[in-house]
Amino acid sequence: MNLTQRQMAELLGIDVSTCSKYETGAMMPSADRVAAFCKALSVKFDDLLETR
Prior knowledge:
Layout: H1 5-12, H2 16-24, H3 31-41, H4 45-49
């Protein structure tokens, strides 16, 4: 997926500022929110958290 922060925030139902904080590591989402992200993005939990 190639989304802007605004598009990602809209897809996930969060504020753009929150999306930015997640991206920079200034804030971490709760486990419930991560599960919702996986569903919205149609990805497995392990794939979402995989670091490369």
